[in-house]
Design brief:
- With about 150 residues, the chain is an alpha+beta fold.
- It is built from five helices and four strands, in the order αααααββββ.
- The chain has one domain: NTF2-like, domain 1 (Nuclear Transport Factor 2, Chain: A, Roll), CATH 3.10.450.100.
- It has a four-stranded antiparallel sheet.
Length: about 150
């Protein structure tokens, strides 16, 4: 019996094309709100595992300018792990309200499209069980969804 050498290669290429097709379709079908939510979930997954350096990378440059990486990592670990006495936490992300011309600071430049999410962080620490609620905003910066916080007073 003679084997066709090209048949396996053809199947491999066909499979790759199918995977690529589904990836492209899902990317186009996944709306902006869903992409923004995924960034929030990724951010809090890093935070809940104490990987504050990686979560810092998902912050918008305006937030990164407020907190350099080293200070952010040290402060987050100090507050959440040190003061709260919790090594980790669980979280729930809800919302996804879209805002137009939203401002991070009073009188600041407006951002054209922003999504607001509410994040509930559940801690079980040395002081018992408590829930911390934070409003998180996600916007596009150089084609990437990035996290900002509301500093309006």
């Amino acid at each position: 019996m003679r084997r066709r050498r090209g048949r396996g290669k053809l199947l491999w290429i066909g499979g790759l094309i199918v995977v690529l097709f589904f990836y492209l379709i899902s990317s186009f079908l996944m709306g902006s709100e869903r992409k923004a939510r995924l960034v929030v979930e990724e951010f809090y997954e890093y935070e809940s595992n104490g990987d504050y350096g990686r979560s810092w990378e998902l912050l918008h440059t305006e937030i990164q300018e407020r907190f350099n990486r080293g200070a952010y990592v040290q402060d987050r670990a100090h507050v959440f792990n040190g003061h709260f006495g919790a090594d980790t936490f669980s979280y729930e992300v809800s919302g996804g309200k879209e805002w137009k011309d939203w401002r991070m600071v009073k009188g600041g430049d407006p951002f054209a499209q922003v999504y607001e999410f509410q994040v509930k962080q559940n801690y079980h620490g040395k002081y018992g069980h408590f829930v911390f609620v934070q409003y998180v905003y996600v916007l596009l910066e150089d084609g990437e969804w990035r996290i900002v916080w509301d500093y309006k007073k």
